[in-house]
Design brief:
15% strand, 17 strands, Alkaline_phosphatase_core_sf, hydrolase, transmembrane helix
């Protein structure tokens, strides 16, 4: 054992010194069975010490990585580690450290491979529906306004508001886009974001932007952060930043409506459009402001990889998350918050892995911010995806090989190929039966688009199960393989809201603290696991010597 311990301690000292540009050499420690056996035993002890947190959740936070399938998570994990100068394979994204995990089946009622509207509806209402539909049951017909009435679904947003909780949504897409819209909207077509996208015979229905500001539960959202100003502004309005017109044909200015509606209710509200205007809510708190709408782009917000470091034009997902929690925490009954890393999906649709991985790392940072701003004693945090993408991890690249780099060379055509590729999409480069030559190309560039097998205008989603990561009260109820519609049922049960509001009356308002109540959502966690191994090794070496 002494030799194994010495090797582990040596690895801990040497590992931080590895640079990304250096070829990774497998350490002697990893070649020793002792290294892996002792690591496995330490992880086993972590699991044995884990005790479910059965308290009532005061706060609920759900992070949705749009398109964040398992291949995306794996690649982002390696990308993060390599950006920090390490080999990357043994890295962890913040939410991968959560103590409870499950998988969800993402199919919609109508499709084997779903879209984001149907999956978001499942995630937020607890009911599956047809692809393309937002917040309505599968009885509603796509693009049929009249079929909406009587088939509207209530969401966890409504359940939280009925329980007196503050509510908010944060996204990097338009706030009327498919995922956030499923929280507050009811539409037979996800593209009905403004009246400009609606058919003339749909005059009885409201577009999603109107539903957000005019109707419940949208109008009672304390926080609305994201992009999509154009859906709220008339075509006669010129956006001062984008220098483009609004999208609305009905002449309505819904931002102005939102402001006046709050004035009529005699509540303090603020509309903001820049990172600088958001800053006070991050650093000083909301003060007396109760409602904040931040629309930070004319369309979707910028990719993190495209933001200029010397010009803070738009806030990061982390900053929006921190500000949202600061605002919502004023409510002593707790809050519900949805945070979407929405542009992961957009990058994948373009076969653009670099931007997708960057967006995933950005969302992981936002998860860290939420963990730091709350306590696992009373806050359930769930991280999941709505669906996956046809991203593949190819070849047999060696440890430490750049995840955005070349995996190898094909003996069939003598051309190299990248580790990350897609099954389909627009980045199709076959000419006369021959692949393109990647020699001299910067495959790690944000503007490099990975090769595909089947040419399509846009890369598609994929249908495999997606992961669920959870920490906090009742997180242990996420287990095995579940329907995607199961997710809000657990969250509602944890907080005693919606169909599960009688839960608290049966068990009492609060249960005693459990072993999980340590503020991190885990009993031991990665650091304690590391400390356990190191302490054992040091003790053994000391006893051997003396």
């Amino acid at each position: 054992m002494a030799t194994g311990c010495q090797l582990i301690l040596l690895l801990l000292l040497v590992r931080p010194m590895l640079g990304l540009g250096e070829a990774f050499k497998v350490s002697a420690a990893e070649e020793s069975p002792t290294f892996w056996l002792e690591m496995g035993q330490a992880d086993l002890q972590d699991s044995l010490r884990l005790v479910p947190n059965t308290r009532v959740a005061k706060n609920l936070i759900i992070f949705v990585g749009d398109g964040m399938g398992l291949s995306n998570v794996m690649a982002s994990r390696v990308y993060l580690g390599q950006s920090e100068g390490r080999p990357g394979e043994d890295s962890q994204l913040s939410f991968e450290k959560f103590p409870y995990t499950a998988f969800s089946k993402t199919y919609s009622v109508s499709h084997q491979v779903p879209d984001s509207a149907s999956t978001a509806t499942a995630l937020f209402t607890g009911t599956k529906t047809n692809s393309g539909a937002v917040g309505v049951s599968a009885r509603a017909k796509i693009n049929d306004c009249d079929s909406v009435f009587g088939n509207e679904l209530t969401s966890i947003l409504s359940w939280a508001q009925e329980a007196g909780k503050a509510t908010g949504l944060v996204t990097t897409t338009r706030v009327t886009h498919a995922t956030p819209a499923a929280l507050y909207g009811h539409s037979p077509h996800r593209e009905w974001e403004s009246d400009a996208k609606m058919p003339k015979n749909a005059f009885r229905c409201k577009d999603l932007a109107r539903q957000l500001v005019e109707d419940l539960p949208g109008r009672d959202l304390k926080v609305i952060f994201g992009g999509g100003r154009k859906q709220f502004k008339p075509v006669t309005d010129i956006d001062p930043v984008a220098n483009k017109t609004g999208a609305r044909l009905d002449g309505l200015d819904l931002v102005d409506y939102w402001i006046k509606e709050k004035e009529n209710r005699n509540v303090r509200a603020k509309y903001i459009t820049t990172a600088a205007q958001l800053s006070p809510f991050i650093n000083k708190g909301p003060g007396s402001v109760e409602y904040v709408m931040g629309l930070f782009n004319h369309n979707h917000m910028k990719f993190e990889a495209d933001k200029k470091k010397d010009q803070v034009e738009e806030p990061s997902l982390t900053d929006m998350t921190r500000a949202a929690i600061n605002i919502l925490q004023k409510n002593n009954k707790g809050f519900f918050l949805m945070v979407e890393g929405g542009r992961i999906d957009h990058a994948h649709h373009a076969n653009n892995a670099k931007r997708a991985l960057s967006e995933t790392v950005s969302m992981a940072e936002a998860v860290t911010a939420a963990l730091n701003a709350t306590s696992s004693k009373d806050t359930l945090i769930v991280v999941t995806a709505d669906h996956s993408h046809v991203l593949t991890v190819n070849g047999y690249p060696k440890r430490g090989n750049p995840i955005l780099g070349v995996a190898g060379r094909s003996a069939k055509d003598n051309l190299t190929y990248t580790t990350l590729m897609y099954s389909n999409g627009p980045s199709y480069h076959m000419r006369e039966g021959r692949r393109r030559n990647l020699e001299g190309m910067d495959t790690a560039s944000k503007n490099f688009f990975q090769d595909v097998l089947v040419p399509l205008p846009n890369e598609t989603h994929s249908g495999e199960d997606v992961p669920i990561y959870a920490t906090g009260p009742m997180a242990h109820l996420f287990r095995g393989v579940v329907e995607q519609s199961y997710v809000p049922h657990v969250m509602a049960y944890a907080a005693c809201i919606g169909r599960n509001k009688q839960h608290c009356q049966r068990i009492g308002d609060r249960l005693p603290l459990t072993a999980e109540d340590n503020g991190s959502g885990q009993v031991i966690g990665g650091w304690m696991s590391l400390i356990s191994v190191v302490s054992t090794c040091i003790l053994y070496l000391f006893m051997e010597k003396y």
